[in-house]
């Protein structure tokens, strides 16, 4: 779950970077505009992943024995 959330947060960050630097919304371009239902689902998933990622700030690092 953590890696899925992190992947979605990275997608969101890259999309916002493209919007800020080039005024280009990759999600909207790929999924039919900002108001299409598919784009709205992607935006919602990215937002939920961002909320979930907040919890990762407060978890202790896991140490694995190899």
Automatic annotation (TrEMBL):
Domain of life: Bacteria
Transmembrane segments: 7-31, 37-58
Keywords per UniProt: Membrane, Transmembrane, Transmembrane helix
Coiled coil: none
Stored PANTHER family: MEMBRANE PROTEIN, MEMBRANE PROTEIN-RELATED
Protein name: DUF378 domain-containing protein
Organism from which the protein derives: Desulfonispora thiosulfatigenes DSM 11270
